[in-house]
Write a structure and sequence with these properties.
Layout (H helix, E strand, L loop, with lengths): L1 H24 L15 E3 L2 E3 L4 E2 L5 E2 L6 E11 L5 E10 L5 E4 L3 H4 L5 E6 L2 E7 L6 E10 L4 E10 L6 E9 L1
Antiparallel strand pairs: 1-2, 3-4, 5-6, 5-12, 6-7, 7-8, 8-9, 9-10, 10-11, 11-12
Length: 175
């Protein structure tokens, strides 16, 4: 009787181990059938996109929402609060998927040359630069709001030709 119990227990343990191995080897790969584009990688059934791309399958360049002609409404916020400047400005893709070029009319024709910026998700960033090489610098950040399709900016213009340097702060909304 004791050997019958031992045989039954051994059989039960064997069936349990076999079932466990079979179940774990048959679980579905959440990434099978998921194709991530533009160098994206799948994890848990979702694509993780490289910088510069977004969308369910990494199919859209992030620059897409920025690349257009905008109607800008900017005002000086410091050192004084001035009237709003209205103008148009064009943004296009730069040399790489994360680069943007802000065309000539930035800040109501303040600069003659284009301004370089970088895109990351819903943010566009202007690293400090002097587009005309004349001592006037610009730097700032804009955030795109997908619900309103607007771009909200804060930026500074700095004149290094005077001592002390003169810095003007601006805020604006582009639509």
């Amino acid at each position: 009787m004791k050997s019958l119990r031992l045989i039954a227990l051994s059989a039960l343990v064997t069936v349990g181990a076999f079932t466990t191995v079979l179940y774990t080897s048959c679980s579905k790969d959440a990434c099978s059938g998921v194709t991530c584009q533009n160098g994206g990688t799948c994890s848990g059934g979702n694509c993780t996109c490289p910088t510069g791309y977004e969308g369910t399958s990494c199919e859209t360049k992030s620059i897409t929402k920025f690349a257009k002609t905008w109607t800008a409404s900017d005002k000086e916020t410091s050192p004084k609060d001035t009237a709003v400047a209205l103008y148009t400005v064009a943004v296009s893709q730069g040399a790489t998927v994360t680069d943007a070029v802000i065309q000539h009319t930035f800040t109501d024709s303040y600069f003659n040359n284009s301004i370089n910026a970088t895109i990351s998700g819903n943010t566009i960033t202007i690293a400090s630069q002097a587009p005309d090489n004349d001592g006037y610098y610009v730097a700032g950040t804009g955030t795109y709001d997908p619900t309103t399709s607007q771009l909200t900016w804060t930026y500074t213009l700095t004149n290094t030709n005077v001592t002390p340097n003169q810095t003007l702060s601006y805020s604006g909304t582009w639509h």
